[in-house]
UniProtKB/TrEMBL annotation:
GO-annotated molecular function: anthranilate phosphoribosyltransferase activity
Keywords from the UniProt entry: Amino-acid biosynthesis, Aromatic amino acid biosynthesis, Glycosyltransferase, Magnesium, Metal-binding, Transferase, Tryptophan biosynthesis
Reactions it catalyzes: N-(5-phospho-beta-D-ribosyl)anthranilate + diphosphate = 5-phospho-alpha-D-ribose 1-diphosphate + anthranilate
Membership in a protein family: Belongs to the anthranilate phosphoribosyltransferase family.
NCBIfam families: trpD
Cofactor note: Binds 2 magnesium ions per monomer.
Domain Glycosyl transferase family intervals: 73-320
All copies of domain Glycosyl transferase family 3 N-terminal, residue ranges: 13-63
Protein name: Anthranilate phosphoribosyltransferase
Superkingdom to which the source organism belongs: Bacteria
InterPro entries: Anthranilate_Pribosyl_Tfrase, Glycosyl_Trfase_fam3, Glycosyl_Trfase_fam3_N_dom, Glycosyl_Trfase_fam3_N_dom_sf, Nuc_phospho_transferase
């Protein structure tokens, strides 16, 4: 008879070894569901520490199905949960940045709280998710882009799904997915829905060995750089520090968040295709702002306005749309 593991008391911060052991027991199914739920809720109520987040991400990394990636590959993704139901910004950014010559290992999943996640929208565009996952290494090497479907690369998370649904609120598992990219990228643009959590998540990413990253949040609790107003950024790596940026700093106008409100997968896919075919407007500007950040993280640009111009050129020359077509056919 298997002896069930006991979880530590989460009322006070856990050290790295204790947190690692606890999350290993959770993901290995050694703890009853009710105890897991209580532990995760208690952690969330006092706010997880960077050590706890990093430990949980390490446990998930140790159990993921990894893929090889070219040197300099990056990821662009958010934690979700911002409740804004915007169009798929990071998915479009991934395509634009890859078309600019930066390998992008896009980690993502189906929608949890929004109407269409990265997987849903890419599928609506015609990408075969099973084939894309099975050929991720090849497409990353040959095309410079891959979609790493979270449910394919993190099978241990399957047991967590009913527990997380029953909890019905944010837990540490909303944070660690973006910290466990199957391609083991060391450069990342990571969006977080809580401005006050930026330093914590950035510190966790630093603990995990990131080479360069921006952890960002719009001041409207948006898990990406906002086209509607100021955004906060915590950078790690050679230019570590905190800053605030506005669309105007990158040479872009402001738009209401309502102007980039999304819909179902078909709606978002049509908007993304129109964007890549050169349609101007708020969605394009939001993508340009976030693509500029990704290009800076990738060390392809230093200046925000220059990075925006590079991203715009990639779209206007048809390179991003052509890449999407090649990816779908790959």
């Amino acid at each position: 008879m298997t002896t069930l593991a006991l979880l530590p008391d989460p009322s006070t911060p856990l050290d790295e070894a204790t947190a690692h052991a606890a999350f290993a027991d959770i993901l290995d199914g050694k703890v009853p569901d009710e105890a897991v739920a209580r532990f995760l809720i208690d952690l969330a109520e006092r706010d997880e520490t960077a050590i706890e987040i990093a430990a949980a991400a390490r446990v998930l990394r140790e159990r993921m199905i990894a893929v090889k990636a070219p040197v300099g590959a990056i990821d662009v993704c958010g934690t979700g949960g911002d409740g804004q139901h915007s169009l798929n910004i990071s998915t479009a950014v991934a395509i634009v940045v890859a078309a600019a010559g930066v390998p992008v290992a896009k980690h993502g999943n189906r929608a949890a709280s929004s109407k269409a996640g990265a997987a849903d929208t890419l599928e609506a565009l015609g990408l075969d998710l099973d084939r894309a996952s099975a050929r991720a290494e090849e497409s990353l090497a040959d095309l410079g882009i891959a979609f790493l479907f979270a449910q394919k690369h993190h099978p241990v998370l399957a047991r967590m799904a009913p527990i997380r649904r029953a909890i019905g609120r944010r837990t540490v598992f909303n944070l660690i997915g973006p910290l466990a990219n199957p391609a083991r990228v060391t450069r990342q643009l990571l969006g977080v829905a809580r401005v006050d959590f930026l330093p914590t998540v950035a510190t966790a990413l630093d603990y995990l060995g990131a080479e360069a990253a921006m952890v960002v949040a719009g001041e409207e609790s948006l898990d990406e750089l906002s086209i509607a107003g100021p955004s906060r950024i915590v950078r790690i790596g050679p230019r570590a520090g905190e800053l605030t940026i506005t669309p105007e700093d990158a040479g872009l106008p402001r738009h209401s968040l309502d102007a980039i409100r999304g819909g179902d997968a078909a709606f978002n896919a049509a908007a993304l295709r129109a964007l890549l075919m050169g349609e101007p407007g708020p969605y394009r500007d939001a993508v340009l702002l976030n693509a500029a950040a990704a290009l800076i993280v990738a060390d392809r640009a230093d200046d925000w306005r220059d990075a925006v111009e590079e991203a715009a050129e990639v779209i206007d020359k048809g390179l991003a749309n052509a890449l999407l077509n090649c990816w779908i056919a790959f």
